[in-house]
From TrEMBL:
Organism lineage: Eukaryota, Viridiplantae, Streptophyta, Embryophyta, Tracheophyta
One Pfam family here: MATH_2
Name assigned to this protein: TRAF-like family protein
Origin species: Corchorus capsularis
Family annotation (InterPro entries): MATH/TRAF_dom, MCC, TRAF-like
Signal peptide extent: none
SMART domains associated with the record: MATH
Keywords noted in UniProt: Coiled coil
MATH domain segment(s): 10-136
Coiled coil residues, start to end: 345-407
Amino acid sequence: MESSSRSRQVTKFRWKIENFSLIETKKHYSDNFFVGGNPWRVLIFPEGNTVEHYLSIYLVVADAATLPSGWTRYARVRFSIINQIKPKSSTYKETSHKLNKKECDWGYTEFLSLSELHDPRKGYLKNDTCLVEVDVSTDESIDLPAPEFIVESDPNEADHGKPALKKQKTAITNPEEEINASALALVLSCLEQLPSNAQPCSSIETIKPKEYPSEEDMDALFTSLESVLASHKVYSSEEVKEAISIIEEALCMAPASATFFEIGKLSTLDKAFKVLSSSDCSSALTVEQKTELLALEKNLKEVPQRVAKATQDKALLSEKESLKLTLTRDLEHSLNFFKQGKAELIQIEQKIASLHEQVDEEEKKKTDILAARAEKFKITNDKKMELEALGKEWPEYEAKAKAAEDELKTVAAEWSRMKDFISSTKESFRKGTD
């Protein structure tokens, strides 16, 4: 990973990402590099940012968190994913933007489709290594040197976390060269297309070329040379037969067991298709057979995703059935709970009503008792008062009773005397008559 300055305000940053298929994080950052004295870095989403089937790439203000409020920073940037087989067919996109606190990164959500990125024939991944180049200018008066064989795209097609427009820089390739060019011609083509440090930038001084090629230039050359030589490898008839057998074996397997279709890895099946699509082998095939062969490879490599999705959908139904059964049982339990509760409430209400009747009866008894006690209290109080009054008169009554007793004794005595008198008188008359 290295940056090479073209001027104080224009920098080319090269990022070599090894073991690309082993990246497990959603975001993958480069080291910091400096343009115009300010730190930047590159951010990629190997599996896409909010989109599927695309690699996303952005230029990030590395020190955004420490900048004062209200900061802005202009950048014109060209992102490149290098085709390590045919560098002239590399994918380029260019944009410009004034970044700020809310938009501290800028780039393309749909930069390169994953199917192209992971296709060994496209050359974007070589030995599981991806080469990223970023040209950055921070001076609005400076344009980036235009790369050769690239159709210019609309600079407004870039976005911040949104899908990019389909209009983009498209590499110009010649299919005839791809099949018929000799190894030497392709090597010379690689030499011609290597980045040049002598390209002029408009509005600034001409940049002087380096006396010797950089290590990056040499690495790119020999990487391309390896790819060129590999593309012209001649396969034997035995290798072709073996390749056909490998593909037949894959087709005889159940789709769910096709575990060797792992994206981004050179597998036995990839090699088999590579053998069949080689120039020597493909020359024996008709155009329809070549087209069918490419479609077959694509369909086979899509099998794992399709099987995984189908298996997931099937498992999802089983999971939902289990959930449905659990919910049904819980709801039945709840229904029984509410029914039982309602019956218990009715019984309790009946008991409460019965208790209310008993309370009313007892209240009536209480009222009757209170009324009887009140009446008894009145009678008792009257008798008490009468008794108290009698107690006060009692001595008088006792005196009268004693006087009456004496009177009765006197009367009895007088009565006895009168009786005795009559008796004596009677005796006297009796004697007088005799």
